[in-house]
Specification:
Structural class: alpha/beta
Distance between the termini: 36 Å
Family: Belongs to the zinc-containing alcohol dehydrogenase family.
Number of strands: 16
Pfam families: ADH_N (PF08240), ADH_zinc_N (PF00107)
Strand content: 15-25%
Order of helices and strands: EEEHEEEHEEHEHEHEHEHEHEHEHEH
GO molecular function: alcohol dehydrogenase (NAD+) activity; metal ion binding
Largest sheet: 7 strands, mixed
Shape: globular
Cofactor: Zn(2+)
CATH class of the largest domain: Alpha Beta
Domain Enoyl reductase (ER): 13-350
């Protein structure tokens, strides 16, 4: 039996995929009931991610109807019987995995940063279980993160996936302060956060993007060098080597599809490329792997422990997600039009509950 200190409605609005490759539908559905390890979160902000387009296209074979958005923030309004670390009223960034099995090697192993890889979990919100584009959402207390008072709901929603993903990507480079990281796709929703995280960790940053908007956004965050990725590969390599003593970047993070070969070419011998983008195939010339010993490493979202570290980093360094807010779940078509125009800077988000946005100003939320 879940614990709640407020009277909850029986129904809510939800933005759902009811047919693949078709428009979203705004429907009225029952408010979900949290299980023993769950939180019921009143959604403040739901963020749009590339993964949402994949869900809508049927790539993940989600069971329909599927409520959209796996990036959400809001306030806890009910907690499950086994939840001890959260209470009603807590401001949170929703965890994406639901109900990890607790028994597999990733759940029980010594590497805390692998817990998000549990393959026997109960699904992922907004992908295979109901998502954040609704008035309420179920989130697992074991994968959800409390917000510092200084972090806003507007920033926290995109941080749930974009932030967690690129924060872990920067960690996966294993670079030390003063070393060079190149971020390929630096001016997107993940890229502008990656720049800020890398800067907070003391890294020198090479920003590469192939859009005017992306290059401008990268510049806003004070990178060391900006390179237009639309140039010939040889010219990009030349510019990177000109600032790295002829060696190339110590590591590269790939955030844009089909740029892995470029990322390898601008990385120094024996360097590491962290692959975040998800094209159907990752193609790299063999000589980069064999003769230059470039190592490729994949990454997923941050673990619960890394997510807490990320929030501390955000609060300490004033890191903020650039958002493009749309007011109301019924504005989804306007959001999609903006995203598809490729003119967007940062992340597109839907403000589901403006009252929560106003209320957090009283506690000093600003990042």
């Amino acid at each position: 039996m879940a614990t709640s200190t407020t009277s909850l409605p029986s129904e809510m609005r939800a933005l759902q995929v009811t047919k693949f490759n078709a428009p979203y539908e705004l429907r009225t559905i029952p408010v979900p009931v949290p299980g023993p390890q769950d939180l019921l979160v009143k959604v403040a902000v739901a963020s749009y991610c590339h993964t949402d387009s994949m869900v809508a296209a049927g790539i993940f074979k989600s069971k329909l109807p599927q409520t959209a958005s796996h990036e959400g923030s809001g306030t806890v309004v009910a907690v499950g019987d086994c939840v001890s670390l959260f209470k009603v009223g807590d401001r949170v960034m929703c965890g994406i995995p639901l109900h990890p099995c607790g028994e597999c090697e990733d759940c029980t192993g010594p590497i805390e940063g692998h817990r998000q890889y549990c393959a026997r979990n109960g699904g992922h919100i907004g992908v295979t279980t109901q998502g954040c584009a609704a008035d309420f959402v179920i989130a697992d207390a074991r994968t959800t993160t409390k917000l510092p008072d200084s972090v806003t709901f507007l920033s926290a929603a995109p941080l749930a996936c974009a932030g967690r993903t690129v924060y872990r990507a920067v960690l996966q480079t294993q670079l030390r302060p003063g070393q060079w990281v190149s971020i390929v796709g630096s001016g997107g929703g993940l890229g502008h956060l990656g720049i800020q995280f890398a800067r907070a960790m003391g890294l020198k940053i090479i920003a590469i993007d192939a859009r005017d908007e992306g290059l401008a956004l990268s510049k806003d965050y004070g990178v060391d060098i900006i390179v237009d990725g639309r140039q010939e590969k040889a010219e990009v390599v030349k510019k990177v080597q000109s600032v790295t003593g002829g060696k190339g970047a110590d590591s590269a993070i790939v955030l844009a599809d089909h740029t892995e070969a470029l990322a390898a070419a601008i990385t120094k011998m024996h360097g590491t490329v962290v692959q975040v983008a998800q094209p159907d195939n990752v193609s790299v010339p063999f000589h980069e792997l064999i003769f230059r010993d470039i190592r490729f490493k994949g990454t997923l979202v941050a673990s619960p422990e890394e997510s807490k570290e990320m929030m501390q980093c955000i609060a300490q360094h004033g890191i903020k997600a650039r958002t493009n807010p749309f007011h109301g779940l019924d504005k989804i078509e306007d959001l999609l039009s903006t995203v598809k125009s490729a003119k967007i800077k940062g992340k597109a988000v839907i403000i589901v509950d403006p009252e929560q946005i106003e209320a957090e100003k009283r506690i000093g939320a600003k990042f």
